[in-house]
Amino acid sequence: MKKLLFLSIIALALRAQAQDIRPVRDDVGFCWQRPQMERLMALLAVNEPEPPPMNGVVAAISPHDDYLYAGRVYYPLFKNLRAKEAVIFGVTHGAVRKEIGDPQGILILDEYASWAGLGVTVAVSPLRERLKLGLARDDFIVSNRAHSLEHSIEALVPWLQFANPGIRITPIMVTAMPYDRMEELSGRLAGILSAYVEENHLQPGRDIVFLVSADANHYGRDFDNAPYGEDEQAHARGTSADRRIAAELVEGTLSGEKIAKLARELWGGTHLDPGNYYWCGKYDIPFGLLAILRTVRDTTGCNLRGELLVCSDTYSEGVLPMRRPGFGITAPFSPKHWVGFFSAAFWLQ
Predict the structure, then answer these.
(1) CB 210 within 8 A of CB 295
(2) Which residues pair with 59 in a beta bridge?
(3) How far apart, in whole angstroms, are the C-alpha atoms of residue 287 and residue 267?
(4) Which of 278, 304, 279 is CA-nearest to residue 289?
(5) Which residue from 159, 316, 289, 266 is spatially nearest to 211, judged by alpha carbons?
């Protein structure tokens, strides 16, 4: 009897411990074992130019599409990124919104003790609890369910952990909200981020980096988004628009005016209208950049200067030539169905 009781207690403890780890959502498009990541990085190292050092990168925009599609776009950003912790702004995708009742005008935080990584877990920064204490109660909700369903933040975790085994993360999901709400809420968030950076004597770009996870246009009739048609010429027009929008936002000095222009371009008459482009980053890019820019100005007195690293899409890239990689692709690619993405980095100016 005592033995059965002991085994039951152990089982409950193990179950509780498992619930403390945020589980993998996408075990197809992303890789979750270090040997898999090593093979991917080795392939990219042979076929891509050596990326410049990313020390000093304060903020960045990263894709979250399948690694076999977007590996070449992730690579120059993450290959040499060496910050000790990362704040990651993620999307709240439509499927997740449907499951959790489509909350709007708020941020979504989690309460997992750690997140799944490359065979070992990734710690959550104490910054997350500071956010819960510092933000107003109507600024956020805490939902492990939302974070367990959403893949945009987890996509960056293996890349971060591969180069930085001791990395700590602060995951923040961004919901739909009008621009004035973004300015208000991002300002409060930036105040907490700035206090955390200063109190812990962190140097942005060396000790902490701010990341936005976003893909660009989702093109095709199954996305209800095929304004140019479904042939090679349509693909060329669509990807050209992605490159223009990304470059206008990123290249040169980042400003509130550029961020507002992006929101106007990606949204329709209001923030809930579809607009002319179906970017899944239509909310977390402007919100994240507003919060980051304010934080950087408050803590360093500097602005940010950006550079577009790689801009591409699933049809242009195709699938990386890896045999039995241990992971795969989650959607087709063709002129009738493609997803755009880009990587960008920001330094102090």
Answers:
(1) yes
(2) 210, 346
(3) 13
(4) 304
(5) 289
| pLDDT surpasses 90 at 52 | no
Neighbouring C-beta atoms of residue 1, cutoff 10 Å: 5
Domains and CATH numbers, the chain: 37-348 (3.40.830.10)
Q: Residue 4 pLDDT more than 90?
A: no
Instruction: Indicate the helix (H) or strand (E) that contains 22.
Output: strand 21-22
pLDDT at position 19: 67
Q: Is the pTM of this model over 0.70?
A: yes
- Which of 269, 349, 337 has the alpha carbon at shortest distance from 302? 349
Cα–Cα dist 92/280, whole Å:
8
Query: In b/e form, how buried is each residue of 323-336, taking b as 16+ CB within 10 angstroms?
Result: eebebebeeebebb
Write out the E strands in 214-261. Answer: 218-219, 252-253
The Cα–Cα gap between 211 and 242 comes to: 20
Report the C-alpha gap between 109 and 278 in whole angstroms. Answer: 25
Tokens describing residue 249? 């936002």
For residues 318 and 47, the answer to whether their CB atoms sit within 8 Å is: no
Q: Are 134 and 196 in contact (CB under 8 A)?
A: no
Type of residue numbered 45: A
Write the Ramachandran bin of 275: left for phi over 0, alpha for psi from -120 to 50, otherwise beta.
left
| 172-216 confidence digits (pLDDT tens) | 999 999 999 999 999 999 999 999 999 999 999 999 999 999 999
Q: DSSP secondary structure string, 172-187? A: EEE----HHHHHHHHH
